[in-house]
Write a structure and sequence with these properties.
The complex is a heterotrimer of chains A (about 375), B (about 600) and C (about 290). Chain B has about 600 residues and is an alpha/beta fold. Chain B is built from 25 helices and twelve strands. In chain B, strand 3 and strand 4 form a beta hairpin. In chain B, helix 10 crosses helix 12 and helix 19 crosses helix 20. Chain B is elongated. The chains are: A alpha/beta (about 375), B alpha/beta (about 600), C mainly alpha (about 290). At the B-C interface, helix 7, helix 13 and helix 15 of B face helix 4, helix 9 and helix 11 of C.
């Protein structure tokens, strides 16, 4: 049967009309609903899946313990497509549902910035994982951060490298995207304050296929320690291999991607002996060990910071709503900010007035493929 | 010959009557209603955002409908221009604290200039090469946006983008965007019927023919790019004001592909199609969110759909609908009577209309034309003949400007046209038809001839503003079509005409421009004997009006009967020249065709 | 000097990757006058096939390799029948767009089936590389360069000295004439797509150990390879090779001496320069349209 143009046109019309006719029935009022904007599609789809995993684990635990305000908690997920307009649309779709009391937002700072105006307008609490320091310093009272921001990662890297490893000639390699640039700046600042200004500040564009020029630049700079902010594990893998191939064996302290599961797998031996700052390190505390165990039991895979922060966010949020005794946004906010000395998977939460819950990082080491916990560095200023 | 009074009576009113704006009052009314609806209906934030995105994206896709749909040039950098507008508004209002009303036009201006600049690359390139240049441009712009932090804030993007005081609320801003959409839509809707629009369509259908019919192809393409870019910039500026935050990842090559697909889905050549396509491609993902539970599934289906649309609905959804409508419309248009075609060729120079001296064209080592002299007398029919490969068509191509002469001089009616590009030669009074018929296939017979009539300096139609000359243009075109005997089929598409009739339309197109000299390249090729007789009659009628004709053909009967003067070429050189009968009996000529004993 | 040598090696190495993919482009273009925007995805699919067979199923490397190439041949057939053949009489624009659609379809189908995590593929050799004086020679890059050289020789022999190769050339130069001479044009085109898909697949399998197997691996290379084709002169095989190598070297040196983040920009700047000043590329011939 030949497909004529008419058939095709009719098919398109039917295909478009159909889903519109299928409307979704919603459960009425018997649950507490929390919205979650997460990448289901787009380049960060993988991470989005892990984020959902962490949130769902926490949800199950909260519900098992009696739920929130006597009701079960439900997670409403919207795909933000890993794009800025995508998260604005996803958030506005969730925001339109007035029975959603709070939200989980993005781990990507540009996406948080994109949705920030709408968050401000809506006036309900949003838990975020993005690490750009500016997010909690721009006058928006509704953003609560569940990972330490990049001003801390930079300081921890600097502190560890200078004070613990004793190295003062730094080469910084960072991605030119938002995360990498901000991170690089934070590290440079921290190093200057410690009296060890970097000898090389090298940016690279994401998805480079070859890092030879970068490696050679590091070699030539005479640096005795390397600090990095890599966004994508693929880049990290190629860089690490070429670094070792070209004979650069200086100590390396990097941002969390350096010790992430996928990077370790891709780069193999090239990353042995590297240090990384990790907001989530399984052995850093009892709470993180416990989380690690639950996650492995459920998903047969080791967790990382993508799932840890959402786990903590749901847990702390639920606790805060229970403590506030109401779904009133202002009261929830107070309750969250009052959360101190809470042992979460990511670390000990002590919320400050800006909405930042964590103020330090774990330092971990890649010991022949196993990520082992080294120490925790916190800043209490 | 009819008398003056008869002529007057026979002229039916071809004019359009009421002014354009009034006739399209329904459009403006609808637009006003939509704007009011946008301003007053209570939308929730989600719908508001979707509508905002759809409206601004539609304007960008309008741009594509101009450059791609109308002018046939591919542009894979629309997201870059969208970005220019967005950043202009973003940086202007957030950093420099300028008024939105200053930033928006500035953004449009920057995009316009950038688009013109990109369009200039079409001077040398078309097709895939052009696609690559636009992709490269896009990639470079994205790289700069990300890395030039001093200029663009880099990957962090620009936040706290301002809106005009007048439209501070989202509702009113949306209404403003809808109003802009309606205005731009109106302009784009009518663009195909303006001189520039017709020129674009001609370039899309057949560049070579467009050039020899007096259209400055390069300039038309540059305009098309500039307009497309300007619309993209406008859309981006509105988008920035609407969403208050922009970052480089929104202006990447992937976004350009999104714009392109939106344009294709709805119908690349029409603004309505653009709106349909944009709306669908913004709404469908929202409706089909359930498909997104498996990463990649939605986009895979999307990719499949692109292939299917290109295969089965190349004109998009609206094109499909509109084509049916057009077919109906072509049959029902009234056919007013027209007066007889007048040909008043200029006569500045003396007796010789075309003087060719020492003309040579070499292709590397091959001397296709070697030192040829031709002198065409005013008011005569002059034939250029020779066996296959003698250089006749090459000579004609050099005369009309499609090839640049290696040496020699061409003087048309006192003007040296040797170095002029084709459209300037047409303006100087040269008309030509092609051996392998080059009509604009997507247009009607009338529209094809109108393009010919539109050449610069055509004294037979009114000059000046659109209103006055469009009626005169149609009138002139109808006269030419009637002159060749096809007036009653003026509104049919080219594809419905027989080969012989298409040839006649091509001649009508050339005549409508009132040329000083008409070049006919093998006009009898492919005609049957009846059609050849008709052609001969036509040539006689043309010659009777005093127009000079230079004809190439193989049909010796036609040549000997129609032409008074013959020039013969062989192996690129002139071997005989003179009065017809004498030349045809010349021994060199006979041996060139038939070989010697 | 050490620096320059190392950069040169890496530049040629990555350039050889571009050259391999460019070869696939050129062949399809010559036969069908179509630019295949899905060429990069051919590389990506083959790499994933290798992962499925040699890593997930654990089959021997050489066997997986053969199966992967076979799979690519099949993909070439499907691609021709589904995308090019129905549109063969239309202008270039619908075909370009259809191939863009195909590239989106392929990339996301793989994503839907396999998931977004990048995968590791082992190289052909056990030793990762050799140190030759001051220069480190990655063994996989050495392999790529050797294969490219071998392929160039093979291509030359095939197209110039076998009947099939000459038939393919004839078809690409003048379809009508070829068919008048009794050559089945559609068969020739099918063979071209199969060969080109296999070439693309080969490039993907060779480069995967270096760049890792990911959904996006095809597209960046393809864009650069396309640029290389134009620089070398569209439609010319030698040009594609030279163009690819040149591009790899320019990029690497540009990154080292001018700016690393703008590395991708160099490719495009060079491309634009060529398009403006010498659109026929280094080796191509100017083709004027006949009136």
């Amino acid at each position: 049967m030949r497909l004529t143009r008419r058939d095709f046109a009719a098919g398109i019309v039917a295909g478009i009309a159909a889903p519109h006719i299928i409307t979704s029935a919603r459960a009425q009022g018997s649950t507490i609903r929390i919205g979650m904007c997460v990448p289901v599609t787009g380049p960060a789809a993988e991470q989005g899946l892990w984020a959902q995993n962490g949130a769902k684990l926490a949800l199950a635990a909260v519900n098992k313990a009696g739920g929130v305000l006597g009701k079960q908690v439900e997670l409403v997920i919207e795909d933000d497509q890993t794009t800025n307009p995508g998260i604005v649309l996803a958030f506005s779709k969730l925001a339109a549902q007035s029975d959603i009391v709070a939200f989980l937002g993005s781990i990507r700072s540009t996406q948080v910035q994109a949705m920030a105006p709408d968050v401000l307008k809506l006036g309900k609490p949003v838990m975020i994982g993005g690490t750009n320091p500016g997010l909690t310093h721009s006058g928006n009272p509704w953003l609560f951060r569940f990972r330490p921001n990049d001003s801390y990662s930079g300081r921890v890297i600097a502190d560890f490298g200078v004070n613990t490893l004793g190295k003062k000639k730094w080469a910084i390699v960072h991605s030119t995207d938002a995360f990498g640039t901000a991170g690089g700046e934070a590290l440079t600042d921290a190093l200057k304050k410690l009296g060890a200004p970097p000898v090389l500040d090298q940016g690279y564009a994401n998805n480079s296929q070859d890092f030879t020029p970068v490696v050679l630049a590091v070699k030539q700079s005479g640096a005795d320690v390397l600090g990095t902010y890599f966004t994508f594990e693929g880049d990290l893998g190629i860089f690490a291999r070429q670094l070792r191939q070209l004979g650069v064996n200086i100590p390396w302290v990097g941002s969390p991607s350096v010790v992430a599961v996928s990077a370790t797998k891709l780069a193999g031996p090239a990353l042995f002996g590297t240090y990384g700052v990790a907001d989530y390190a399984e052995d850093s505390s009892e709470a993180s060990k416990a989380f690690g165990k639950i996650y492995r039991d459920a998903y047969k895979f080791a967790p990382d910071n993508q799932s840890a922060w959402t786990y903590d966010a749901i847990t702390i949020l639920s606790a805060a709503i229970n403590k506030a005794g109401t779904t009133d946004p202002g009261k929830i906010r107070e309750a969250i900010l009052a959360t101190k000395k809470y042992a979460g998977a990511e670390g000990e939460y002590n919320f400050d007035q800006n909405g930042d819950g964590l103020h330090g990082y774990n330092v971990v080491k890649n010991d022949k493929g196993n990520i082992v916990y080294d120490k925790h560095i916190d800043f209490n200023d | 010959m009819s008398t003056e009074s008869e002529k007057m009576a026979a002229v039916a009113p071809l004019g359009r009557g009421k002014p354009l704006v009034l006739r399209h009052l329904p459009y403006f009314l609808c637009a006003a209603i939509l704007v009011a609806l946008a301003a007053m209906t209570q939308f929730d934030g989600y719908i508001l955002n979707i509508l905002m995105q759809a409206t601004t994206f539609s304007i960008a896709v309008f741009g594509l409908s101009v450059v791609l749909g109308l002018c046939g040039q591919i542009n894979l950098a629309q997201a870059a221009f969208f970005g220019f507008g967005a950043y202009a508004v973003g940086l202007g209002t957030a950093d420099l604290q300028w008024s939105f009303w200053l930033c928006l036009p500035a953004g449009v201006g920057v995009a316009f200039v950038a688009g013109a600049f990109l369009g200039m690359s079409t001077l040398r390139l078309g097709g895939h090469y052009l696609a690559m240049v636009t992709i490269s441009f896009q990639q470079i712009v994205t790289l700069v946006m990300i890395n030039a932090i001093w200029l663009s804030h880099g990957p962090d993007g620009v936040s706290h983008i301002g809106r005009p005081e007048l439209f501070k609320s989202s509702q009113s801003y949306l209404a403003f965007c809808v109003a802009m959409l309606a205005i731009v839509g109106y302009v784009v809707w009518h663009l195909p019927d303006t001189k520039l629009g017709r020129a674009m369509r001609a370039v899309r259908d057949n560049e070579l023919a467009a050039g020899v019919n007096g259209i400055d192809v390069f300039r038309t393409k540059v305009y098309a790019f500039a307009i497309c870019a300007a619309l993209g910039g406008l859309a981006g500026g509105l988008f920035a004001g609407g969403f208050a935050y922009v970052s480089p990842d929104q202006f990447s090559f992937a976004e350009s592909i999104v714009f392109l697909t939106m344009s294709l889905l709805g119908g690349v050549a029409s603004p309505i199609g653009s709106v349909i396509g944009t709306g669908l491609l913004i709404l469908i993902p929202e409706w089909l969110r359930f498909l997104k539970s498996v990463p990649g599934l939605y986009l895979a289906i999307y990719g499949l759909f692109v292939i299917l649309i290109v295969r089965f609905m190349p004109d998009g959804i609206w094109g499909f609908v509109a084509a049916a409508f057009d077919r109906w419309r072509a049959q029902t248009k009234a056919r007013p009577a027209v007066k007889a075609l007048e040909l008043k060729p200029a006569s500045v120079g003396g007796d010789i209309v075309l003087e060719v001296s020492g003309l040579s064209k070499y292709f590397g080592g091959l001397k296709a034309v070697d030192g040829v002299d031709i002198a065409v007398k005013r008011g005569s029919v002059h034939a250029l003949i020779g066996p296959n490969g003698s250089g006749k068509t090459t000579t004609l191509n050099v005369l009309s400007g499609l090839y640049v002469a290696t040496a020699g001089k061409i003087v048309l009616d006192g003007t040296d046209i040797t170095r002029m590009p084709p459209h300037q030669r047409t303006a100087a009074g040269l008309g030509r038809t092609f051996q392998n018929i080059r009509l604009f296939r997507s247009m009607t017979a009338l529209e094809n001839v109108e393009i010919g009539a539109e050449r610069t300096g055509n004294t037979m139609i009114g000059k000046g503003d659109i209103k006055g000359s469009s009626a005169a243009l149609t009138e002139r075109a109808m006269e030419a079509l009637t002159f060749v005997g096809l007036g009653n089929r003026a509104n049919e598409l080219i594809s419905s005409f027989s080969y012989g009739h298409q040839r006649l339309i091509e001649i009508a197109r050339a005549l409508a421009a009132n040329p000083t000299l008409l070049l006919l390249d093998e006009p009898a090729a492919g005609l049957n004997s009846t059609e050849k007789l008709e052609l001969h009659e036509l040539l006689k009628r043309i010659a009777a009006q005093g127009l000079t004709i230079l004809i190439i053909d193989h049909d010796m009967t036609l040549v000997s009967e129609a032409a008074q003067h013959i020039t013969v070429l062989n192996f690129g050189r002139r071997i005989a020249d003179g009065e017809s009968m004498a030349v045809l009996r010349h021994p060199d000529v006979i041996s060139a065709y038939l070989g010697s004993e | 000097m050490d620096l320059i040598l190392q950069l040169l090696f890496t530049g040629i190495g990555i350039g050889a990757v571009y050259a391999l993919v460019a070869l696939g482009f050129v062949l399809i273009f010559r036969a069908t006058n179509v630019v295949n925007f899905a060429q990069g995805e051919f590389s990506m699919v083959a790499a994933y096939l290798m992962v499925v067979f040699s890593v997930d199923l654990g089959w021997p490397y050489w066997l997986s390799f053969l199966i992967a190439l076979g799979g690519m041949a099949l993909l070439g057939v499907i691609f021709n029948l589904g995308v090019y053949y129905p549109l063969r009489h239309r202008t270039y624009l619908p075909v370009i767009i259809a191939t863009i659609g195909a590239s989106i379809l392929l990339a996301n189908s793989v994503l839907a089936i396999y998931g977004p995590q990048p995968q590791v593929l082992q190289g052909w050799f056990e030793t990762p590389g050799l140190q030759l004086g001051p220069v480190y020679l990655d063994s996989q890059y050495l392999l790529i360069i050797s294969v490219t050289v071998a392929l160039v020789i093979f291509n030359y022999w095939f197209f110039e000295h076998t009947l099939l190769g000459k038939k393919l050339q004839a078809t690409s130069q003048d379809k009508e004439m070829a068919s008048l001479l009794g050559i089945s044009v559609s068969t020739m085109i099918m063979i071209t797509f199969i060969y080109s898909a296999m070439l693309g697949g080969l490039a993907g399998i060779l480069v995967a150990p270096i760049l890792f197997v990911s959904i996006q691996m095809g597209s960046t290379i393809a864009l650069k390879a396309f640029a290389a084709t134009i620089i070398g002169g569209f439609g010319d095989v030698a040009g594609a090779i030279i163009g690819g190598l040149a591009l790899g070297v320019i990029e690497t040196f540009g990154a080292a001496y001018i700016s690393v983040p703008y590395k991708d920009g160099f490719a495009f700047l060079v491309l634009v320069a060529f398009l403006i000043f010498r659109p026929q590329g280094i080796f191509g011939e100017r083709v004027a349209e006949k009136a």
